[in-house]
Every structure is written in structure tokens, then in C-alpha cells.
Write a structure and sequence with these properties.
Length: about 375
């Protein structure tokens, strides 16, 4: 089986899900190609879109929230949004790629390529099995205007909302959000700490700034340092935000209780090694934390889908939060000393989050491609005639 996985550089979650899917496929001896789908139109296009997204999220998160709400309104009023027409322009690039690199299935952990696939389907392009993967615990604007063969959803409790928005129930598969095998490995806290050189007798707060390094983590760090006990240390993951890391290094270079980490591929180990995580409520990061089995404190979300992610996790008892940064820190400090609450939260995470989403998706693709590819072959024959 050969699978094309189309992602986009608008935040790290989509690409992380893409890599997790590819990992599962390759482990079974099949082929998986992860492609930044906008790069088909040139690296300049991909950089323009990706950098623009990151800039808005970092500099003006409130504007992103307004755009999200506007998108919800547009999705209710219009059959085809500007997002659909913008991504329709990618169709001829993707068609050329598929002609030169035929595949059995296309998997999309991002809305944009799903919009392109929809345009292609409506205009008679021959396509293999197409599967969209939702990476937030809500139905974000414009998913309802796409037309893929199937949609992998994060949780079955989201299906009423998704169906109400217009996606047929038979297309929904609640496998969950795919995460790396490293998050699922049976590694004890003691083993993880040995591998990372962390002290066994301490308790650790993990502060995850996300792939873009949110500045909100700075305030959380300051408050935690003021409220922590001497037996509690902090690990701060700054992500790809080098300015944030340098700023924190200058301020806390003499504080032995603070460990600063930049971009790292060892995030699953830190999740296993620490006692509580403070993190932005991104869909992928929250899922990785839940699969790893670490109590979660959700900090201030980027308005929009992250607001819904936090609401979903809190509703099912999988995280705590607070209306303010102080409230969030108080919740985390209390949590690290409340064994009963930690136990209930970890049980909820284990009950509600499927750690094997990428595996289930692999077996589903392997079975479904045989059926859909019959249609694909027939369409190709018609085109040649």
C-alpha cells in the first residue's frame, strides 16, 4: 500500500499527526509520503501561508479568534467559502503530482488539502481513497463543505455536532487523533528521568509553549516560581521560539530549579518524566499528554478551536484550568499534591482517549482501499477512452 499524507505548515499539530500516521504505515512495511501540500505550488507559497498564520497567532491571537468566529458565520451562510476557492487553485498541481506518483490513498490531517480534493472530486478528477483527519475536539469552520470518503474524528461525542454541520454519519470514524508511538511506549517515570538526567526525588512541572513558543508561558513560569515548594522543579519547552528561550536564559540562568529546552524530539520522554503539564489546549499536544498519562493544566487558549479543545477536556475530567493565569497556576499546584484527583484524571484520559488511533487508521486504510480503488480504476479507464 502506498499512502500520500498531505499536511500544511500552519502550526506543528497537523505535521505531528501526519508523521504519526506515516510512522504506523511504515512500521507495517507499507509506503507513506508526507508532503507539505502547498509546496506543490512552490516553497514560496508554503512559506507565505505558514509564516502568515504563525505571525497572526503570535502577534494578534484575538484577531485569529475573530476570524474563527467569522468563519463559523460564513460556513452557515455560504455553500462555498473563500477558503474553498483559494484551495481549488491547487488542484492542477496536485493532479500533476498524482499522475507522476500514483497512490492507493490520500490522508489529510488538515482542512486545506481536503478542500482541494473536494474541488477535484466535483470536477471529475479520478481520485483514490480520500480520508480527512480532524485534529481538534470540535468541527472547525468549513469541514462541512468538504467531500472526502471518510473523516477520522477525535471522539464519538463530537459526532452529533459534525453531523449537524452536514457531514454524513456513515463517513465518520472515531479512531481519535494519531500520536507518535513514543507517547504510547511503556516507560516508567523513573526510566524517563534517568534518560533525561532529571532528579528522581523531585516533583516536576512541565511547561509546554507549543511548537511556536507561546509567550503566555512566561507569566505561568513567573507565578509557578513564586508558588512552588523547594521540592518542585520546572522544565520549560520553548519550542522553535529562539527569542523566548534566550530571554528566559538571561533571566533564569542562575536558577537551578528551572530547565530550559528549545525545540526537541524528546517531548514524549518529558511527558513521561514530569508530574503535571501546563500547556496550550492544542488538539495534538493535549492528546499526546493524555496518551502519555500526565495530569493536564490548560493555560490560555488561542481563541477558536483551542477554546473548544479546553472545554471538551474539562467536560470529561481530562484536564483542569482557570479563568486567569493565577487561577491556572493555583489549579496546577493543587493538582500535583492531590493524588486522588490525579488518579481520577488519568483514569478519564485512559477511558476517553484512544492511544492506537494511527494503528486503527492503518488497518482501515488497508481494508477500504481495495473497495475504493475499484472505483478509481474504472474512472481512469473512462478518462483514457
Amino acid at each position: 500500500m502506498k499512502v500520500l499524507i498531505l499536511s500544511c505548515n500552519t502550526g506543528g499539530g497537523h505535521n505531528a499527526a501526519a508523521q504519526a500516521i506515516a510512522e504506523a504505515i511504515r512500521e507495517h512495511g507499507d509506503c507513506a509520503e508526507v508532503l507539505d501540500y502547498l509546496s506543490l505550488a512552490g516553497n514560496g507559497v508554503s512559506k507565505l501561508v505558514g509564516d502568515g498564520y504563525v505571525k497572526v497567532v503570535k502577534k494578534a491571537p484575538a484577531m485569529f479568534g475573530v476570524a474563527y468566529k467569522l468563519g463559523m458565520v460564513v460556513s452557515r451562510l455560504m455553500k462555498k467559502s473563500p477558503v474553498y476557492y483559494a484551495n481549488a487553485r491547487m488542484a492542477h498541481y496536485l493532479e500533476e503530482y498524482l499522475q507522476e506518483n500514483p497512490v492507493d490513498a490520500i490522508v489529510m490531517p488538515h482542512l486545506y488539502p481536503a478542500e482541494t480534493i473536494t474541488y477535484m472530486r466535483r470536477n471529475g478528477f479520478a481520485l483514490p481513497l480520500t480520508v480527512a483527519v480532524m485534529t481538534d475536539y470540535t468541527c472547525i469552520p468549513f469541514w462541512e463543505e468538504t467531500d472526502c470518503d471518510y473523516y477520522i474524528t477525535p471522539h464519538k461525542k463530537l459526532h452529533p455536532e459534525i453531523i449537524k454541520r452536514g457531514i454524513p454519519a456513515y463517513k465518520l470514524k472515531a479512531f481519535g487523533i494519531p500520536v507518535s508511538r513514543q507517547c504510547r511506549e511503556d516507560i516508567s517515570r523513573e526510566q524517563a528521568r534517568d534518560m533525561l538526567g532529571m532528579e528522581q526525588e523531585k516533583k516536576y512541572f512541565l511547561l509546554a509553549a507549543g511548537s511556536m513558543g507561546t509567550k503566555a508561558i512566561v507569566h505561568i513560569l513567573e507565578l509557578l516560581l513564586a508558588m512552588r515548594s523547594k521540592k518542585e522543579n520546572l522544565v520549560v519547552i520553548c519550542g522553535s521560539n529562539q527569542k523566548l528561550k534566550k530571554k528566559l536564559q538571561q533571566k533564569y540562568k542562575n536558577r537551578k530549579e528551572v530547565t530550559l529546552v528549545g525545540y526537541t524530539k524528546k517531548m514524549p520522554l518529558y511527558l513521561k518524566a514530569c508530574d503535571v503539564i501546563f500547556t496550550k489546549p492544542g488538539g495534538l499536544t493535549s492528546t499526546e499528554a493524555a496518551v502519555s498519562g500526565i495530569p493536564i493544566v490548560h493555560i490560555r487558549p488561542i481563541p477558536g478551536c483551542e477554546t473548544e479543545n479546553r472545554k471538551f477536556f474539562r467536560m470529561l475530567g481530562m484536564s483542569v484550568s482557570g479563568k486567569t493565569a493565577i487561577g491556572q497556576v493555583v489549579s496546577g499546584v493543587r493538582l500535583i499534591h492531590d493524588e486522588k484527583k490525579v488518579k481520577r484524571m488519568l483514569e478519564a484520559q485512559k477511558r476517553e482517549i484512544n492511544p492506537d488511533a494511527s494503528e486503527e487508521l492503518y488497518y482501515f486504510l488497508n481494508a477500504e482501499k481495495r473497495i475504493v480503488n475499484v472505483r478509481f480504476t474504472e474512472n481512469m479507464k473512462k478518462m483514457h477512452k
